[in-house]
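Researcher: I'd like a candidate sequence for this fold, 219 residues long. If you have to choose between options at a position, lean toward the conservative one.
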């Protein structure tokens, strides 16, 4: 029995490739992927940064790959996925404590959990929650870590909403703006995405440098 073309495309999706995810699931897939990446530990490997940027780019029609997304629904899906996922991760951490992270066999998750805890201790709740959004893996594990470490729910919710909106809408609109202003930007998509990921790490790098300078200046 033959498999329908649209179903075959979904079954053949590459979850590590942003365009493959978008071609298979469209705007709905953006919300689901962001929810999984920010709310479920099993989603730490998903390409949140590149997915948001590529989706924004595809809203302009600049990427000649037969796929066009609508900006309005995309922004809504991105925001809802990022915010609901983060809140879900926090609630999981509060209910399960650190048990889930303690039992994981993934070296990346363990390293991410350590970095997340360091962020919370070094920069305080508000700044750490916002900064974590821009660091792959850390944005997955910080949410349950915050719940397990007893971060107040109101504090977490406020700053995860602020950080989540800046991250999800910022990257999406960045892709849209670039696709609208540069002809044939699709030819440079991979290096542009790599640059976006590097730029997203700037806030964390700046805070690390600032902390080191302050430590040196302290008698």
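Model: Candidate sequence:
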């Amino acid at each position: 029995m033959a498999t329908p073309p649209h179903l075959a495309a979904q079954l053949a999706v590459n979850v590590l490739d942003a365009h493959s995810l978008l071609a298979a699931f469209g705007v709905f897939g953006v919300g689901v992927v962001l929810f999984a990446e920010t709310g479920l530990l099993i989603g730490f490997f998903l390409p949140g940064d590149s997915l948001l940027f590529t989706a924004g780019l595809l809203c302009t029609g600049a990427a000649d790959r037969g796929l066009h997304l609508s900006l309005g629904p995309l922004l809504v899906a991105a925001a809802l996925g990022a915010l609901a996922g983060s809140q879900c991760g926090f609630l999981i951490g509060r209910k399960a404590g650190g048990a889930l992270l303690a039992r994981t066999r993934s070296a990346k998750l363990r390293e991410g959990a350590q970095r997340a805890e360091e962020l919370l201790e070094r920069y305080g709740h508000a700044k750490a929650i916002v900064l974590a959004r821009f660091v792959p893996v850390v944005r997955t594990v910080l949410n349950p870590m915050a719940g397990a470490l007893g971060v107040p729910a109101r504090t977490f919710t406020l700053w995860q909403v602020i950080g989540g909106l800046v991250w999800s809408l910022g990257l999406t609109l960045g892709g849209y703006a670039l696709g609208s202003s540069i002809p044939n930007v699709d030819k440079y998509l991979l290096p542009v995405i790599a640059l976006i990921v590097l730029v997203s790490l700037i806030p964390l790098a700046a805070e690390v440098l600032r902390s080191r300078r302050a430590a040196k200046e302290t008698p």
